[in-house]
Design goal:
Belongs to the YjjX NTPase family. The chain is of the alpha/beta class and 185 residues long. It has a single domain, classed as Maf protein, CATH 3.90.950.10. It has 8 helices and 6 strands. Strand 1, helix 1 and strand 2 form a beta-alpha-beta unit.
Amino acid sequence: MTPQKISILVGSKNPVKIAAAQEAIQQYFPSAAIHCAGIDAPSGVAQQPMSAEETKKGAINRVKYCQQHAINTGIEADYYVAMEGGVDMFDHGAATFAYMALINNNQLSIGRSALLPLPTKVYEALEAGEELGHVMDRLFNTHNIKQKGGAIGLLTQNLATRGSIYTQAIILAMAPFINREFYAD
């Protein structure tokens, strides 16, 4: 018997994001042959989103771009996945998180990762216009941490990583696709 084939198009060429999408969907379809590729997809928001609303909009813009790109090129995918990391100031303090936007069969599902509290000096650097990955690289003397464990990995001693958080959030955002009968309007 030929295994089920599933194609995924991710709105980023970041290897952490591509691996997270593949790992999350592979968990739902363990015997499937999964092909996962990434493309540069514009977010249409600031390089460093500074609110939950802006972050969610970035993920949605990226996933819609992926779907339109696939339609325009004639190479459509089963799942379109986009992730956008952002920060916001909450009543409990500054935190970073990511929004996931997924499309399957023209249905959009949105998910969000857990919140990671940020040190005040990191948030202040972000407010001044820096990007989280660059601030973390400077503080921890790392290079291109956003394509590795991310701020999450650095601040949790790698007990959680950018990839692990993205994978979990994608798994949650997949729920409407896996349980369509419960989510039908």
